[in-house]
Amino acid sequence: MRCMKAALVLLGIATPALALAQEKKDEAPVAVQTYESPITNNKGEPIGQIQIRDGANALVLRVTIKAGGLTPGWHGLHFHAVGDCSDTEKFEKSKAHVNHDKRAHGLLNGDGPDEGDLPNLFANADGSANGEMTSEMALTGEESLKDGDGSALIIHANEDDHTQQPIGGAGARVACAVIK
Ligand SMILES: [Cu+2]
Hints:
It is built from 1 helix and 9 strands. By secondary structure, it is of the alpha+beta class. It has one domain (33-179): Immunoglobulin-like (Sandwich). A 7-stranded antiparallel β-sheet has the order 5-8-9-1-2-3-7, with no helix packed on it. A two-stranded antiparallel sheet has the order 4-6. Copper (II) ion binds next to strand 5 and strand 8.
């Protein structure tokens, strides 16, 4: 009798544990994809780099800028539609924001945001900056950052107010990183 009780208790514990193990086995682990690319300024010089990690729940963008890379203060940051940073003076070849759904620009705009919208990056007094942020975009697949013509991370001269069209008053494009 005592023995049987013990067996039942064991079963009671063992069953959920087994079920959990099976559940974990059934869920194929989603590997985190990583992408890194240098950031170039208007003179074509490298000023830092981006790192993108894309996993099951989020795409995480890390931006690292070395001292002297940017003017101190806030800078608008967006994913632009084409992965071309070759026209370093203006970075216009990167085209407009990634925006498949034709939304208005602005994280704080009621008709937005567009897919390229990102939070601002703050550069320190020495021009260095470090930031990490998430995006709704995916790294690979349909309508992703690495689509046919790729995309670019653009850093603007001024901060993005997250409201005004077309780019929140962020001004000139001062740095660019290819995502392809
Ligand atoms: Cu932009």
